[in-house]
């Protein structure tokens, strides 16, 4: 292993420890289907140990540390992170198969997330509240306590940054449970927290199976909050499991984003965004524009352009910097994607290109699938309603604004949307009518630390990033102080 990180221990209470309940097992490289590294995974008792360490840190050194010192530590960590982008990208790509050019680009931004949240750590003041002269009233903000961060396999380090940045800035401590398919990069992250000098227990990393380690984290009475990214059905399980302990939850649950191309758009630019978004991360990201809504006058042109551009996508070994698109991150996801190709065909959608597993030399053992385009899709087909999480674009024709909006809003999801038009009035009208947490106009998937990210409807609860991204990690306390010290006797007469 060239990166110098070790993955065969859990990171609990500032120490690298062997699992009590779990063990060490190989992590699979989805480009080869073969093990590439040995990774520790924990069970219930390992989670209990991590929560105990996080609780002790929360009640001890972390709570006593002035917020500017907390901020300084986070900045130190962010600077260290920035020096490790190449190594982290290599680890993440080995685990989830994301083309390394994409991993590097994404991971190259993460230090900014940590820096941005660090800059807020010592500015989390409250308000003074206008009252009558007999009292002074003010609010202060306090960390909720131990946070369980449960992350998915498509973007492990990004999800970690979005959760740990605000949690640590708010003064919480964290147990991070990465997805079982892609645990290595989160353990690499633990190395950097250790090296930056975080007090033991502030950050703990315990890979493990969702229904075992994840479930224990959710039901643990000392976990105040779960920050989760993943599937909607898992979120419902978590909500029920956390009910007895009234655990706070925020959920980022994916989507089926409409990417709307009006006929008056700058079509070349729109196609760059729409095709890029269809096949980025091999289709495995929640905000991708997996539904391409195209106004009739340019429909044939757009379908043809998708076919032509699919042929230019270089699918290959993800660590090769020339590769555009790697494999699906694991075998189950490959099977899921291929099953949706069959579903789309059976529903009568027109398969324009792709749709098959790639079996050419060098790729046949990996989970590679062709960039895929369905045209003639109608809004009620399953391939237009359900999250596939593969490189499958569903092109849906429409006539006019009203139909575009009605199709855009016709799925249970509401995470993101994009629209392309040269008409400024239309841009604002349509953006306002779309049910989504985020709308991009004449751009797509522009995502930064400062802009709130999250969904409505089945796409989840709460926001990550932005000032709003801190709210789920904080409680407000209201203090009311009498200026007179007098209190009328209610039983005097
Ligand atoms: P998942 O929701 O099962 O996994 C996400 C995380 O939740 C993992 O860390 C997993 O270990 C954990 N988890 C699973 N069961 C748990 C439980 N009972 N208690 C606590 N934690 C638990 O998602 P999965 O099955 O890996 O992917 C299935 C589909 O979900 C994908 O095909 C995609 O459509 C969607 N998805 C959406 C993501 C997003 O970015 N919003 C990310 C990952 C998946
Ligand atoms: Mg699952």
UniProtKB/TrEMBL annotation:
Catalytic site: 252
Electron transport in keyword set: no
CDD domains listed in its UniProt record: ALDH_DhaS
UniProt keyword annotations, A-Z: Oxidoreductase
Stretches assigned to the Aldehyde dehydrogenase domain: 24-478
InterPro entries membership: Ald_DH/histidinol_DH, Ald_DH_C, Ald_DH_CS_GLU, Ald_DH_N, Aldehyde_DH_dom
Molecular function in Gene Ontology: aldehyde dehydrogenase (NAD+) activity
EC number of this enzyme: 1.2.1.3
A Pfam match: Aldedh
UniProt record similarity statement: Belongs to the aldehyde dehydrogenase family.
Official protein name in the record: Aldehyde dehydrogenase (NAD+)
